[in-house]
């Protein structure tokens, strides 16, 4: 179950959030025993510090949480989550010191500090439960936490238990929860209904490829989300080395992220028409696998010279984007764990995105700062278009040379979005090591920032 706020009650332990530059002014106003105890324990208000202060009978009377300096906070996400992970089990309330503008994101971080992936073993830990601060919309923050936990759970699940059928089941479960409609085009029907690239990439697996289509809402602007659902990626005949294959259960991270974003949208009841498209496949190796050098037909009618079977994500997305563009949505967004080049460019924490719309980029940058969900704009650099144009087909899915790999992948996808207002995210979908509020494993990236920006982007 996703973490939620503790029920209001009089017995919650008060937490005083103390910045390092305000500790010296805060401490003299406290009882002598508090002053002595805080100094004896070395509490200074530094980021991540947590201290419980006993009363005269030895029971916990209050807790102190370090909030550091502005410079320290700028280098961290979810500052209070680190303190929450150090406090003993119990129920807490914020008594003072937390800036109102930080309350929502820090409360979310506190909730996410309690996340555990416990499908395969008992992963229960000590939990410091938080009552929702008065200035926070508790239901809205809990909804964000639920979306994050959904995405993390989907990505963290090994491919043996999260193939195309299981990803379909997750989308259908979400549809039932919010009264959405879900349909699926499966196996050979993909060819009959003109989704040749999705079928080609998935045909080598005994787990049938499919296109999942979820729809919700009947009024307002039309928003379509497309998520890469490669449930495991061997690399195909251009097979990956073992080390590169180890994390490929996360190659459906784009699908998991758009489902998390869709959950936020539906839970909030945004006045828009939502469509979610997920091409769900397994890129396997067998006699039926597609080959390097094959020229493939796409739904849009563009031919693609396949120069690397490990560049399959853009192929399945291409057919889904072409379908999305036929519906002429007001905004089309794709999310995918697409290229290693993006990781080299910005590392695992930032979510690189592409758009030709300056207003959308500005709205997203502003919301990312508010939501502790960092993003970074990358260029659709038109002069690189020639790099994705081979000699014998319309497009090349893996240009030679290795330069600008994330940009050329984004340009490839833009060809299938056509004239639609389009934004693409090349995410990592994974937290490589434990951090406060962000446990090692699957990650929601860019989706909270997008959710917060949608009212401005779509004039809701």
Automatic annotation (TrEMBL):
Aminoacyl-tRNA synthetase found in the keyword field: no
Domain of life where this protein originates: Bacteria
Entry GO MF terms: aminopeptidase activity
Database matches in InterPro entries: Leucine_aapep/pepB, Macro_dom-like, Peptidase_M17_C, Peptidase_M17_N_1
Keyword ATP-binding: no
Entry similarity comment: Belongs to the peptidase M17 family.
Protein name: Leucyl aminopeptidase family protein
Organism: Leisingera daeponensis
Lineage summary: Bacteria, Pseudomonadati, Pseudomonadota, Alphaproteobacteria, Rhodobacterales
């Amino acid at each position: 179950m996703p973490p939620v706020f503790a029920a209001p009650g009089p017995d919650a332990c008060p937490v005083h959030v103390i910045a390092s530059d305000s500790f010296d002014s805060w401490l003299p106003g406290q009882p002598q025993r508090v002053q002595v105890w805080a100094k004896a324990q070395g509490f200074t208000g530094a980021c991540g510090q947590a201290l419980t202060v006993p009363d005269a009978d030895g029971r916990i009377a209050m807790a102190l949480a370090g909030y550091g300096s502005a410079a320290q906070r700028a280098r961290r996400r979810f500052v209070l989550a680190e303190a929450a992970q150090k406090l003993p089990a119990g129920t807490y309330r914020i008594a003072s010191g937390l800036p109102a503008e930080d309350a929502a994101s820090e409360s979310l971080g506190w909730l996410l500090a309690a996340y555990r992936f416990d499908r395969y073993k008992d992963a229960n830990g000590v939990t410091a439960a938080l009552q929702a601060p008065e200035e926070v919309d508790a239901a809205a923050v809990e909804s964000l936490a639920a979306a994050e936990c959904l995405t993390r759970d989907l990505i963290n699940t090994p491919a043996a238990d999260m193939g195309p059928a299981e990803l379909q089941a997750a989308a259908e479960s979400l549809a039932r929860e919010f009264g959405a409609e879900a349909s699926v085009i499966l196996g050979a029907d993909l060819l009959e209904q003109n989704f040749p690239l999705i079928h080609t990439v998935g045909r080598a697996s005994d787990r049938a490829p499919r296109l999942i289509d979820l729809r919700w809402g009947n009024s307002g602007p039309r928003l379509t989300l497309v998520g890469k659902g490669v449930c495991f990626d061997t690399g195909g005949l251009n097979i990956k080395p073992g080390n590169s294959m180890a994390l490929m259960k996360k190659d459906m991270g784009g699908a998991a992220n758009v489902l998390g974003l869709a959950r936020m949208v539906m839970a909030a009841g945004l006045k828009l028409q939502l469509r979610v498209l997920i091409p769900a496949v397994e890129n396997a190796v067998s006699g039926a696998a597609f080959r390097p050098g094959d020229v493939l037909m796409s739904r849009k009618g563009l031919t693609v010279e396949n120069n690397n079977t490990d560049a399959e994500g853009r192929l399945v997305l291409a057919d889904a984007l072409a379908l999305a563009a036929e519906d002429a949505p007001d905004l089309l967004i794709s999310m995918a764990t697409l290229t290693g080049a993006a990781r080299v460019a910005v590392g695992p924490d930032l979510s690189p995105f592409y758009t030709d719309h300056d207003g959308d980029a500005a709205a997203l940058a502003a919301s990312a700062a508010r939501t502790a969900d960092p993003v970074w704009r990358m260029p659709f650099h038109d002069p690189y278009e020639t790099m994705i144009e081979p000699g014998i087909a319309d497009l090349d899915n893996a240009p030679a040379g290795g330069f600008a790999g994330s940009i050329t992948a984004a340009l490839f996808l833009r060809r299938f979005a056509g004239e639609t207002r389009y934004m693409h995210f090349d995410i990592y979908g994974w937290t490589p090591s434990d951090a406060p509020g962000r446990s090692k494993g699957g990650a929601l990236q860019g989706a909270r920032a997008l959710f917060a920006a949608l009212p401005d982007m779509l004039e809701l």
